[in-house]
Amino acid sequence: MTEAAAVHLAYADLVSLLERIFVRHGVSEHNAKILAENCAGCERDGSLSHGIFRMAGYVSSLNSGWVDGKAVPEVEDVGPAFVRVDAKGGFTQPAMLAARPLLIEKVKANGVAVLAIRRSHHFSALWPDVEPFAEEGFVALSVVNSMACVVPHGGKKAVFGTNPVAFASPRAGAAPFVFDQASSAIAHGDVQIAARAGHDLKPGMGVDRDGQPTNDPKQILDGGALLPFGGHKGNSIALMVEILSAALTGGYFSGEFDWSGHKGAQTPFTGQFFIVIDPARGGNDVFAERVAGICDLVLEAGQERLPGDRRHVTRAKAEKDGIPLSAENHEKLKALAEG
Ligand code: NDP
Ligand code: PYC
């Protein structure tokens, strides 16, 4: 948040405000609680591209009839280590939570299990999906594809979504090690935020509608596209995410779904994939200590901080002082809840 914060809300108060917005716009109370906790958690941790900034988009998608806020996911037990979920056109977070007990049961029984969610909408950061697994002692990796806005390396047409990958591992003596990153050079949400603020992007993030490099976020949003991070290497990760999140789950590729009949739709209708591992099966009794060890080595070698550190510092401050919101954003949320 760049402007001075006029309001500091306790996490529980922000959750309750967001819950009211979701329910008012057609989300079941069960799903609204899950989505509100997810979104408030992003805001609390300073994941601002997926915090309250996204509420107008959630509402717009719900109002357009594109996403079913009342969807009840169907969990299928399809193998000793394989769980599938049909999210039935709803959000992925309730689908994941519906499958979680069976998934954990399978991880405990087999040492590893996968979860494939299809026909689902994901409009948030990915770290809230994996961090809780690591807090329970498991290693987790998740990927989700989104909407076509990334041109393949050397290509001309957007094929990939911004396709993030998130990974979480227990770490002795500290919060789990977690990273969560788009496979595009920048998340689409951050391009929107830069466009709104009138800031240019760093070079190498996107192209305009003619495929020419541009640093102007508005040109990227107006018919242009993003680039994968790291050239051909990020490109392969984006492609892997499409394969795991869509081909494997039975969901749509990022360029495959047609939302043109739903004016205002913003939430990508794709799939999400998880691998969850019980590290105890690795036969290493000091797994979490080893993770802490390699993290320490990285810091001793000169890396300023580890992924997740910024979030935890922001979270601790928000837990002490409340979650900072500008007066304007607070008013906008209240209007969405009441108007
Ligand atoms: P960032 O580039 O901001 O951060 C990526 C990761 O790198 C984070 O784990 C971050 O940790 C870490 N990091 C950042 N700077 C440093 C540093 N200097 N040293 C060490 N680690 C660092 O994220 P992205 O822009 O790639 O993605 C933003 C969000 O957008 C993600 O949460 C992602 O899930 C979400 N997203 C969601 C999509 C969807 O379809 N739902 C699509 C694309 C993106 P920290 O958080 O502590 O800064
Ligand atoms: O920020 O790239 C993004 C994004 C896409 C879908 C949800 N967030």
TrEMBL record:
<comment type="similarity">
    <text>Belongs to the LDH2/MDH2 oxidoreductase family.</text>
</comment>
<dbReference type="Pfam" id="PF02615">
    <property type="entry name" value="Ldh_2"/>
</dbReference>
<dbReference type="InterPro" id="IPR043143">
    <property type="entry name" value="Mal/L-sulf/L-lact_DH-like_NADP"/>
</dbReference>
<dbReference type="GO" id="GO:0047125">
    <property type="term" value="F:delta1-piperideine-2-carboxylate reductase activity"/>
</dbReference>
<protein>
    <submittedName>
        <fullName>Delta1-piperideine-2-carboxylate reductase</fullName>
        <ecNumber>1.5.1.21</ecNumber>
    </submittedName>
</protein>
<dbReference type="InterPro" id="IPR043144">
    <property type="entry name" value="Mal/L-sulf/L-lact_DH-like_ah"/>
</dbReference>
<keyword id="KW-0560">Oxidoreductase</keyword>
<dbReference type="InterPro" id="IPR036111">
    <property type="entry name" value="Mal/L-sulfo/L-lacto_DH-like_sf"/>
</dbReference>
<dbReference type="InterPro" id="IPR003767">
    <property type="entry name" value="Malate/L-lactate_DH-like"/>
</dbReference>
